[in-house]
Amino acid sequence: MTAPFKLQYIASGVLAVAAALTVAGCATVNPTPTPRANMPPTNTEQSCSSSALAPLGCVTFESHGDVDVSGTVRWLASDPIAVSFDMQNGAPTMIISTTCNAINVPVTITATQIVPDMSGLSLGTRGCVSLAADDEAWTTEFVSSPMDYTLSGDELRLDNSNGTVQLARRRP
Predict the structure, then answer these.
(1) Helices (H), 51-125
(2) Which end of the chain is more exposed for a tag (fewer CB within 10 A), N or C?
(3) Distance CA 58, CA 50 (A)
(4) Model confidence over 88-133: pLDDT tens digits?
(5) DSSP H or E stretch at residue 15
(6) Dihedral, CA atoms, 56, 58, 63, 68, nearest 10 degrees?
(7) 8 A C-beta contact, residue 26 and residue 12
């Protein structure tokens, strides 16, 4: 055998062994699916049943108006933010979607107040420019202070020292 032929022969043998091992590894799939009753609840199922999120869990709200301490913030109606609450890493979390990024902040929810834990704040990493950056900065500042809330039917109102945000339940 010549050297190039020998290398080609060895390489094709190695590839055949690798392929056989890959196929053998895939063949060990559990043929009996785990019944749903025996599986742990999904994050959404945990959130919907979590008293830590009541009465705000499993609902997404969308802004339709706002007033900050300097006047009306009209962009919250034209470029609304979405606000929802979910369990993340075992903690109730407020999730705010802006036109640029998501803002996640762990919170404590009482009967009248949403208190953020800014030490657990996480922001999306997409760079925001111009007005979207200003909107995101305003939103982050707003959710950084405790918010009094009023839930009336499909309307959620958030108030703090930075202003007021009016939200409505988002319909599917």
Answers:
(1) 75-78
(2) C
(3) 10
(4) 988 999 999 998 889 999 999 999 999 999 999 998 877 778 888 8
(5) helix 3-26
(6) 30
(7) no
